[in-house]
Design a protein that fits this description.
Its main location: nucleus. Keywords: Activator, ANK repeat, Calcium, Calmodulin-binding, DNA-binding, Nucleus, Repeat, Transcription, Transcription regulation. With 338 residues, the chain is mainly α. The protein has 13 helices and no strands. The chain has helices spanning 2-9, 30-36, 40-57, 63-76, 94-137, 141-153, 159-174, 176-203, 205-223, 252-277, 281-320, 323-328, 330-337. Helix 3 packs parallel to helix 5 and helix 5 (94-137) crosses helix 11. The chain starts with a helix and ends with a helix.
Length: 338
């Protein structure tokens, strides 16, 4: 318990994964390893820590959204290093205190999981919007991402580029309806032309079939004493492959979607670990002991930083004293020698 608490207080990552295996294709987290060894409290503690750390590590594309997101996280979700155990009173029993800590952990983990799902939905919606811009307005996905990156990296210098990009988007969006109507009319015209050309081709079909039949009977059968076109198979020709059976080009976002699905499964499993911790008194007590160790290590770190700060302040005060000015002061020298 002390090892786990100290490692997390020093910044260890609670969401690391083992190598996938046939038995565990989604890999295993430290919480899974602790649960398989019977440490329910450590498992819930690590699961909650992995949820909160994942929530803090997620970044949004827009800097304004980042600020609002961080404010909401700071108000609703606490990391394990920031949490404190419920203070004990004279009338409270240890089981009641551990139950309160466990219920607080469930609320914290649920809030973190909900916000992670919300971020995933926002990212998916942004991706869908960029794809629509690519298909309808003619803006490529890479160009849109470059505009967003330029805005986030150079908020002051890139204002001209952002304004010009916004003007171009507005121009294209204003003509979007007219362009859509034009594409619809053009599609109908193409269909009419295809029907007319097909009708003209079918009118010439019968004379062509009659002439091919005469040539086949006269030359191939009677003259050359062959089988003619009776054994002809059109499928045997080296025709171009059907584009419907061509393998579709894989998109890089498909891999991200698969990874996000696996992450969501791990989130649900981690949330289940935290909720199952409340059912076992030993797990609740173990979770409270871990919180106490983390709180103690945090207080020790803060107390070790205070004397160093005082010494620095004292050294700074000594540096501010000007010895030459004191020697030139006659009043100070007379008082000192008296």
């Amino acid at each position: 318990e002390k090892t786990v608490a100290v490692l997390l207080s020093l910044g260890a990552a609670p969401g690391l994964l083992t190598d996938p295996s046939p038995e565990f294709p989604l890999s295993r987290t430290p919480s899974d390893l602790a649960s398989s060894n019977g440490h329910k409290g450590i498992s819930g503690f690590l699961a909650e820590s992995s949820l909160t750390s994942l929530l803090l590590s997620l970044k949004m594309n827009d800097s304004a959204d980042d600020g609002a997101l961080e404010d909401s996280i700071a108000k609703a979700v606490q990391t394990v290093s920031e949490k404190t155990a419920t203070p004990a009173n004279d009338n409270d029993e240890s089981d009641v205190l551990s139950l309160k800590d466990s219920l607080t952990a469930i609320c914290n983990a649920t809030q973190a999981a909900d916000r992670i799902h919300q971020i995933f939905r926002m990212q998916s919606f942004q991706r869908k919007q960029l794809t629509e811009f690519n298909n309808e307005l003619g803006i490529s996905y890479e160009h849109a991402l470059s505009l967003v990156a330029a805005k986030s990296l150079r908020p002051v210098q890139g204002d001209g580029l952002a304004h010009s990009a916004a003007i171009q988007i507005q121009k294209k969006f204003r003509g979007w309806k007219k362009r859509k109507e034009f594409l619809l009319i053009r599609q109908r015209i193409v269909k009419i032309q295809a029907h007319v050309r097909g009708h003209q081709a079918r009118k010439k079909y019968r004379p062509i079939i009659w002439s091919v039949g005469i040539l086949e009977k006269v030359i191939l059968r009677w003259r050359r004493k062959g089988s003619g076109l009776r054994g002809f198979r059109r499928d045997a020709l080296g025709m171009n492959p059907n584009p419907q059976h061509m393998p579709l080009k894989e998109d890089d976002y498909d891999f991200l979607k698969d990874g996000r699905k696996q992450t969501e499964e791990r989130l649900q499993k981690a949330l289940g670990r935290v909720k199952s911790m409340v059912q076992y008194p030993e797990a609740r007590a173990q979770y409270r002991r871990l919180l106490t160790v983390v709180e103690g290590s945090r207080e020790t770190k803060e107390s070790n930083m205070v004397p160093n700060g005082l010494e620095d302040i004292a050294d700074g005060d000594l540096d501010l004293i000007d010895i030459d000015s004191l020697l030139d002061d006659d009043t100070f020298m007379s008082v000192a020698f008296e």
